[in-house]
Amino acid sequence: MRYISTRGQAPALSFEEAMLTGLARDGGLYVPETIPTLSRDAIAALHGQSYEETAFTVMRPFIGDTFTDDEFREIIGRAYAGFNHGARAPLVQLAPGHFLLELFHGPTLAFKDFAMQLIGQMFQAALARRGDRVTIVGATSGDTGSAAIEAFRGLANVDVFILYPHGRVSDVQRRQMTTPAEANVHALAVDGDFDDCQARLKDMFNDFVFRDGVRLAGVNSINWGRVLAQVVYYFSAAVSLGAPDREVSFTVPTGNFGDIFAGYIARRMGLPIRDLVVATNQNDILDRCLRGQGYHKTQVHPSISPSMDIQVSSNFERALFDAYGRDGNAVAQLMGELGQGGFDVSQGAMQVLQDTYKSGRASEQETTATIAMARRTMGELLCPHSAVGVKVAEEQRDPAVPMVTLATAHPAKFPDAVEAATGHRPDLPPHMSDLFDRPERFKRIGNDLGALKTHIKENLSV
Ligand SMILES: *Cc1c(COP(=O)(O)O)cnc(C)c1O
Fold first, then answer.
1. In this protein, which residues make up the domain named Tryptophan synthase beta chain-like PALP (predicted)?
2. Residues in contact with 236: Cβ distance below 8 Å, sequence separation at least 6, in sequence order
3. pLDDT for 143-186, tens place per residue?
4. Closest by alpha carbon to 400, among 243, 235, 249, 244?
5. What is the rounded distance in angstroms from the CA atom of residue 364 to the CA atom of residue 98?
């Protein structure tokens, strides 16, 4: 299995190389050259399997000879051992025909643990065999950073530096990043906003001397290994609702388009998914684009679902690549136009996108009203991101096809929004109840590429 870049100019890589690299050197994203499929019988055989067994079957065709079957089973086992629910991704019923897939039972209470815990274990195994080390640098608006630190803390051969905007993440998110005591964890509070953090990260990847010198690796959501890990729960959910004999639809609260793109891969692998619904908050660039209005950046308006406050949806590039018939030159040109503010999608590509994805949006008021309604009539406490999904799903679902909405974070991660909507302040689960008593450790640093590079070079622990 080879991986190719969406911009057509970088060399094709193996799974291992694509995972350890993250971003392609032509600025593109890696995608599999071909999508493997699972037969109806293979999907039917997933009935009654554990999450880990399903994960092995779904991901095995993508990893080539990077790991032996035994190694890969062990990696998967270690990745999900720290989850607080035996099913890992349990389904609960909200209403007749509407289900919630709870993806927040991992160590940092957001769905990003599914991918980050797995790639932490995959990195460790691959680096140990190669006798190599890497420096992981990530930018975060909150959830990616805490999930990455949790996954890589204390692992050999890896340093992890996370850039977060000083004063602009929630207390829970910050403490999840600043309280781990391991020497390979480095939380950097940057004087700037999230876009500044992401821009400095891109600068580091484009500085090939620095990139090669510290063996820079990226684990943000464009890493193919993360997308792959997320394909698994589409299978586990659909199979428990009757696949392959019955179709299922999914609604996905979306920011960087990684999670919903994993659903598209599941469908391409043969899972009978009827609708894939993109749900956005008031930052609705994806909804507008999918309605045929082109992809044009505006300002980010901070919302109560901050992990979806985004204008440059990185993984959308993968969807465009397929919609443009895998024409890397066309994608490179669109991304160039995006640097100038935006682009229009060709008629042919738009048709493909609209045949593949549906979309909807939720305003702030609608999100709050949905949190309140779900508590009242469904007995479920939703985080604001999940509420965006539930609102859009209720609008779009066909009563004849089961709808699964992805619940992307635990309500206790966003207690202010939940309390404002319901009057009820959700408690942190027991394993995190002392979070506010642990000492914090972080480095405050300017929004300055030179200062960041120097700090990283001087603070490597391995
Ligand atoms: C990251 C995140 C999202 C958006 O996921 P994408 O893969 O970026 O579309 C939604 N909800 C929560 C809670 C998140 O942390």
1. 99-331
2. 46, 51, 54, 88, 89
3. 899 999 999 999 989 999 999 999 888 888 999 999 999 999 99
4. 249
5. 22
**C-alpha 408 to ligand 1 mean position (Å):** 7
Token representation of residue 32? 């599999």
Strands 91-95 and 98-102: antiparallel
Q: What sign results for the dihedral spanned by CA atoms 237, 241, 243, 247?
A: negative
Task: Pick the closest to residue 141 from 202, 196, 65 (CA basis).
Answer: 196
The catalytic residues are 112
Mean pLDDT of 425-441: 92
**Spatial CA neighbour of 316 closest among 356, 271, 267:** 356
Q: Cα separation of 419 and 186, whole Å?
A: 32
Contacts of 381 (CB under 8 A, 6+ apart): 371, 374, 375, 411, 418, 422, 424, 426
Residue 193, pLDDT > 90, answer no
Q: Delineate the domains of the chain, giving CATH numbers in brackets.
A: 91-107+225-422 (3.40.50.1100)
pTM (predicted TM-score): 0.96
Nearest by Cα to 91 from 229, 227, 241 = 241
Structure tokens at 127: 């680096």
Nearest ligand 1 atom to the CA of 255 is 9
Average pLDDT, the chain: 95
Which among 104, 111, 276, 413 is the best mutation to test ligand 1's pocket, defined by most ligand atoms within 8 Å of the CB? 111
CB 447 within 8 A of CB 191: yes
Going by pLDDT thresholds of 50, 70 and 90, the confidence category of residue 118 is very high
| SS3 of residue 233 by DSSP | helix
Residue nearest to atom 8 of ligand 1 (CA): 256
Residues with CB under 6 A from ligand 1: 110, 112, 143, 221, 253-259, 307-308, 385, 408-409
Across residues 94-104, what is the average pLDDT? Answer: 97
